[in-house]
């Protein structure tokens, strides 16, 4: 598994650590899950926007 170095404000990291502790997860697990959620949401949004754009184009061509 690859490792990634990121920078963030100390207060933000404290919040992440607090949530990870309360959920009995590691910081890495919590951040991976957050990124999975972001990717799913992004893919859904992009698909939805693409479908809307396609409909608009089809209507313009009719």
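Sequence proposed for the structure above (62 residues):
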């Amino acid at each position: 598994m690859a490792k990634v170095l990121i920078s963030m404000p100390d207060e933000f990291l404290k919040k992440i650590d607090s949530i990870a502790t309360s959920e009995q997860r590691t910081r890495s697990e919590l951040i991976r899950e957050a990124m999975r959620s972001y990717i799913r949401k992004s893919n859904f949004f992009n698909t939805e926007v693409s479908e809307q754009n396609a409909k608009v184009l089809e209507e313009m061509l009719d």
